[in-house]
Amino acid sequence: MAALMIEHVLAQAEKDEAEKLKLISVDKELELQFDLGNLLAIDPNPADVKAFRQQNREVFLRSLARDNTQLLINQLWTLPTQRVEEAVVATLPDPSTRLPREKPIPKPRAPTRWEEFAKLKGIKKKKKTNLVWDEVSKEWRRRWGYKRANDNTKDWLIEVPATADPNEDQFSKRVKAKKERVAKNELNRLRNLARADKGKIPGVGLTPTEQPSRDDLGKAMHVAKRSTASAGRFQDKLPKEKEPKNMGKKRKFQPLLGDFGAEKNKQLEILKVMDSKKPKLDVNKAVNRQMREEDAEASAKRKKPFKKGGRGKQGGKKGKGRGPVRGGKGQGGKRRK
């Protein structure tokens, strides 16, 4: 009895193994061409037109896609693998198929003036730790940013220097100095961008000049505010700050991958207009044109017509064709012959 049960279990296991192999094994007349670097599989086999017409098209296409995907996955399992955090990862080879790019390859960034100076003098950038000791709170805090260490902006009392005006507000002076430093950094950044672009003037922002005007500084400040993640929505305005003029409007383009239904309807409308024998009539445009023609005719009728024979042969300009002309000085008023 035990032997029969063992044989039954072995037979069931062999049957299950055969079913699994049947699921992952796909037979093709021509072998597929694989580019594992791009996870690409090219099927050179011609499609079965008879089966495509007889069967449900969606079922046929799903079956074909499933078989080709299974062959691609089988090829991936032939690559060297390794386990990374409870996951099996395969090392893909270099791609062999060149795929078109939407945008050109970005060029390397040009060095700034400080980077060029540091390279010339041999100055190497030293990496600083992100955390420093704060003597006030007696704990480690960040060197920059929110809740940074040794933050003097949180002081409720500021000592007035001996050389400063005792009636001057030191808090507003500190805020003003910080805004000037931010504006100076933005000016240097824009100058580096203009210099990297070989002296070309940027479309918006500040032109690199020795003495920028007030309008240029306003535009640069506007660009700096809009460069945040929220497009300057939460940036505070300065007192008496005005919106810069002639900044241009941002063009809007339809997304490359968007609403396929709307794109389909748009193409169908274009084909319908091209296929129709009668041209599409714009009622508003036709009415406006008719009204302009009627106004032009009415204005032409209101003009006074010229009388025939009222003027000389040349009729038109004053002093021509008006009969005898009186003589000048010393002619005694005789007619000119």
Automatic annotation (TrEMBL):
GO BP terms in the entry: endonucleolytic cleavage in ITS1 to separate SSU-rRNA from 5.8S rRNA and LSU-rRNA from tricistronic rRNA transcript (SSU-rRNA, 5.8S rRNA, LSU-rRNA); ribosomal large subunit biogenesis
Compositionally biased spans, kind Basic residues: 301-323
Localization terms from the record: Nucleus
Biased composition (Basic and acidic residues): 234-246, 271-283
Pfam families for the chain: RRS1
Annotated signal sequence range: none
Region of interest called Disordered, as start-end residue ranges on this chain: 221-259, 271-337
Similarity comment: Belongs to the RRS1 family.
Role according to the record: Involved in ribosomal large subunit assembly.
Protein name according to UniProt: Ribosome biogenesis regulatory protein
Organism from which the protein derives: Pyxicephalus adspersus
